[in-house]
Design goal:
two-stranded antiparallel sheet; Heat Shock Protein 90; five-stranded mixed sheet; about 350 residues; HATPase_dom; alpha+beta; single chain; transferase; rod-shaped
Amino acid sequence: MASFNLFDAEEKLLEQAEALRGSLDGTSAVVRGGFDTLLDGYSRSVREQRRLVKVSDRLQAQLATVNQELGRRKAEAEEALASLKAAQESLVQSEKLASLGALVAGVAHEINTPIGIALSCASHLADATAGMRKMFEADDIGVEDFERFMATVTDTTRLILGNCDRAADLIRSFKQVAVDRTTSDRRHFDLGSYIRETLASLGPHLRQAGHAVSIDCPGGIVMNSFPGALSQVLGNFVMNSLVHGFGPGEIGHIVISVDQPDPTSVRIAYSDNGHGIPEENRGRIFDPFFTTKRGAGGSGLGLHIVYNLVVGQLGGTVAVEPRDGGGTCFIVTIPKAID
């Protein structure tokens, strides 16, 4: 509104100048010509200012429209990003549940063997006991019969107890690993023992393919961290080796070694002697949905989950390094205690 008031004042000046020009009729032609030139220039200046104001108003209106459109696009982009993050989180959770499901299936298959042996031994012992009862009732028990029965009892009970202990160990290891993976609680645990428990729960997958596993971890390393996250990391490393590192029929070797670069942290080196990772892919392996096995069992989320767990929940770093002689080596460095 101030600009229009200014133009009103200028219009009044123009009117006064026109009136003044009429009073210059008696002056020299030079004075009137100079006054006319000055008045004409001032009049053009006012018209130009009016034009510029109109252009400015139009540009401001366009800018407001553009800002409004940018705001709308920004809101749409933020909404799309939120939806993408929610979808990605859902896929990550699905991948974790799938990993836990595979763990359950493998442990169930592993437990089936000692339970089956124990059941067969118990059935055999029941038959031997029934036979002995018949001979006892018929008063027809000889020394050899009794010794044979005692040998059967000794062997079968030894097998039953040994296989029940084996099943109990598997159940105990699986229970702890499964609880850790689903609760994300922080607790104290022995690192070497927990690594062995985790690898024991993955044993069916490894033995089925014939792969060997070596664990080199000094005793007495007590962590105050999140064992479930560490179990998920190791499990994803193993499945990455099985899916990408070794081909059908290939027998590989997996090595997990632990050392302490300083008193407050541990370094876990996971390596296999498989096919390795091409150099052009090393910078992308932790990206979500990057996989070289699309349509063949690869989701592209396994190592992305590893990166998020190590960097986020475990407060450490993870990197992939070239390995002499081929294969892959992941280096995970994490603090012994999470504050």
